[in-house]
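Lab meeting, item 3. Inverse folding demo.
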């Protein structure tokens, strides 16, 4: 009877020790798994930073913008080691169609000859070597940016402004591009139509679940007009 009880007691101790060991192995495995996940996350973030930095360097160096962006996107999808379907579902295809339609429309509009006629009418009053000419240019860019959006405005006026500036002096070509870049960018803030980004924000704000907001044209305009005028004037003063 004694030996039976002693044997049973020893067996219980062995079982208890076994459970403790098993728990220790589980904790050790969980710790290794956590450390591995941490290093994978650090490696993934580092790769994302490197790819993004490489894309920015390529853009600054003048490499083709479209191929640079596509290459960076493919590299990130490959590094993710996951099915690309969730990423592709996040692509705003309606926005892509908007831009495609916008560029085709602008190209067709440009071939009508109306932009050339408009520029020939405005050019004598928009000489870049005079403050009044810069003011006329700024007003023209702001108006066009909020009628056809700022990207088409750059496509319509870019070459024409540069050619006009080159006729005055080659030194003014760089200044004409700076004026166009600055004014068209800031002009996009004036109204919802000024920039595609504004329309995206308006659409996203209305669709946000439980946090939606109806950003109307007039509510944006009352903040956009004064800020656009002030910031544009400051930038033109610095460029001049």
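The presenter then showed the designed sequence:
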């Amino acid at each position: 009877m004694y030996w039976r009880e002693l044997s049973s007691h020893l067996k219980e101790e062995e079982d208890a020790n076994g459970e403790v060991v098993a728990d220790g192995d589980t904790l050790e495995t969980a710790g290794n798994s956590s450390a591995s996940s941490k290093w994978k996350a650090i490696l993934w973030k580092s790769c994302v930073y490197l790819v993004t930095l490489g894309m920015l360097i390529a853009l600054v160096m003048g490499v083709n913008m479209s191929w640079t962006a596509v290459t960076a996107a493919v590299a990130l999808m490959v590094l993710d080691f996951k099915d690309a379907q969730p990423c592709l579902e996040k692509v705003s295809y309606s926005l892509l169609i908007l831009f495609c339609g916008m560029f085709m429309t602008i190209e067709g509009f440009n071939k009508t000859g109306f932009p050339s006629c408009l520029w020939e009418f405005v050019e004598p009053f928009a000489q870049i070597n005079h403050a009044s000419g810069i003011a006329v240019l700024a007003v023209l860019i702001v108006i066009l940016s909020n009628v056809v959006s700022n990207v088409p405005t750059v496509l319509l006026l870019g070459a024409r402004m540069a050619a006009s500036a080159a006729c005055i002096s080659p030194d003014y070509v760089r200044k004409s591009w700076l004026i166009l870049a600055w004014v068209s960018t800031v002009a996009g803030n004036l109204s919802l139509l000024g920039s595609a980004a504004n329309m995206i924000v308006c659409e996203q704000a209305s669709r946000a679940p439980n946090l939606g907001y109806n950003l109307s044209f007039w509510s944006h305009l009352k903040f956009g007009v004064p800020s656009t005028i002030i910031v544009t004037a400051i930038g033109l003063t610095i460029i001049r």
